[in-house]
Every structure is written in C-alpha cells, then in structure tokens.
Amino acid sequence: MKIGELASATATKVETVRYYEKIGLLPPPARTSANYRAYGNDHLARLSFIRRARDLGFTLEAVRELLTLSDDKAQSCDAVDVIACVHLTEIDRKIADLSALRAELDRTIGSCRHGTVADCKIIETLAPRGKDTA
Amino acid sequence: MKIGELASATATKVETVRYYEKIGLLPPPARTSANYRAYGNDHLARLSFIRRARDLGFTLEAVRELLTLSDDKAQSCDAVDVIACVHLTEIDRKIADLSALRAELDRTIGSCRHGTVADCKIIETLAPRGKDTA
DNA sequence: TCTACACCCTGTAGCAACTACAGGGTCAAG
DNA sequence: CTTGACCCTGTAGTTGCTACAGGGTGTAGA
Fold first, then answer.
1. Under an 8 A CB cutoff, do A125 and B101 touch?
2. Model confidence over A106-115: pLDDT tens digits?
3. Which residues on B lie below 8 Å from A48 (Cβ)?
4. Closest-approach residue (CA) in chain B for A68
5. Strand C: which positions are within 7 A of a protein CB?
6. For the segment A24-75, what is each residue's pLDDT rounded down to a tens digit?
7. From start to end of chain B, where are the E strands?
8. pTM: predicted TM-score of the whole model, two decimal places
9. Is B129 helix (H, G, I), strand (E, B) or coil?
10. Is the CB of B4 under 7 A from strand D?
C-alpha cells in the first residue's frame, strides 16, 4: 500500500501520516526501489487505532500510551481505564466551562438594544466601568 | 504603571502583555529613562477589555475587531452583535461536539470489565475488528 | 518516444495564543 | 556594595497538524 492509499483508507492526510511517523507514533514502513513507503495491514490497523482515539479527543501522548498498553495483551487493563477516565473528566470540565461561557455570552447579547456603539451593552460588558477605551 | 503592575492588575502574565503589544493589540506605551514601559489608565482599560473578551472565548482576531468597533462610539452596534452571535454559534457547536464525544467515551468506558488488555473493551473499541495491532 | 499529470520524496515554515528561556540592564533595601 | 526583584530584547518551544518549495517516479495518451 502506498501512502496515499493508506491515507484515504483512514481519512487522513498524507502529510499527517508522515508526521505520525516522524514523531514515532507509526513505525517506519519498508520502502520500494523508488523510495516510496510501502505499508502493510499492521500499519493500517495501527493508524486506524490512532485515528479513532484522536476522534475521541485523546491527545497524541495519550494515544501513544494506549498503543503501548494495547501491545501488551496479558496486562490488566486498569491503566487503559485510568487514561480514559482522566480524559472523560477533562471533557466534562471543558463542557462545564463552555456552558458557563455560553450563558454569560447569551446574557450579554440579550441585553443589546441595537443602538450605537456608545450604548452597546456588549461593549459595556467588556469594558471596565465607565472608562474610555481609546 | 510598570508592566508587572499592569500584568497583575489584569491577571495577565508579563510576557503576554508584551506579546499583545508585539501583535498590535495594545499600543506601545511611553518609556522611562531606564527604557521601562510606563502604562497609563487607558492601557489598563484596554487590556482589561482584551482579557474580558478572551475570557469569553473570543479569538484575538475577534478581539481586534471588537476593539476597533468600540473606538467608534457613534456607529451602530450591529457589527458587534454579529461578532458575538457568530461566536455564540461556535460555542454551541463545540458543546454539541464535546457532548457527543463524551457520550461515546462514556459508553466505551462503561463496557470495560477490568480484565486483561486482551479482553479490554476500550482497546477493542479503538482497534479495528479482530485485527492485531502490533 | 515524448510529454503531461498524478503521485511520491525531504525539509522547512506557518497557524493560535501564548510560555519559557538566555543573556543582559536597573533599582531599592540592607 | 551586594543581593534580589524587577525590567529589557530576542528566540525557541508548545499541540497537532498543514502547506509549501523543490525535487523524483510512474503511467497513460498523442
């Protein structure tokens, strides 16, 4: 399999595949006589794994750990669970932050009377009380 | 006001203040004889505005536009409203994305039986069906 | 056979929005 | 008069790619 085929099979850009190789996430494949990368099914499987983990929002560092863990089939999967749970907590925090932010922005927008900038409640919310920003 | 005072008054790092100046978001202040930056209340107001907008999740580009708009007090504030609404939509999209992701991750974690990696449902979810990832 | 075109290669620079040095200068207190 | 906190400039690092520049390769049609 050439890099373009691997890339389209995993909905990845060619540059990204090479990037994953460079940072050591994807092992360097064999080369053809023309120095083209030649991938096998193991590469396809590993890249699919990486892409799915990324789609679930795991960082590349977390993906690296998950890959290492997944290679040791006899181990307890508690470490995997920990990584996933930490990630879930992180996502919950982000959702909470964004929701709070959304509420505040919504309130701000709702107060806008669509007059001039001088009376704009959005600008007023941003600016410190009464001060001139110019 | 020296840069350290301005920074702590706005909960900003000193480097960030200099960064805002470099990218033209904060006007260059006067200098003391020792070449220290000397800030006034207008700088404090402007930096507060920037920080507040950043806290609400606006990009620096959006902040730049908001600052420009806020300087022209006579204009209609419709443009301000547009920027804020676009941002709100963006936040809603992010919350929706994260929530979907959270649900999937939660399902994945919930299926984990805490055995070995070989039987781990989390790893299984990530790996393509039945394939060896090594 | 020539040539056009799609694909491949390496290496570097760019994005957002900072953050962290390195290697210096200044100033007030003890 | 020295210590330490602060200030200066400039550059490189962070995350996870993406986009060139400047070349080589392989194949299909004229």
1. no
2. 999 998 888 8
3. 127-128
4. B134
5. 7-11, 16-21, 25-27
6. 999 999 999 999 999 999 999 999 999 999 999 999 999 999 999 998 888 8
7. 30-31, 37-38
8. 0.87
9. coil
10. yes
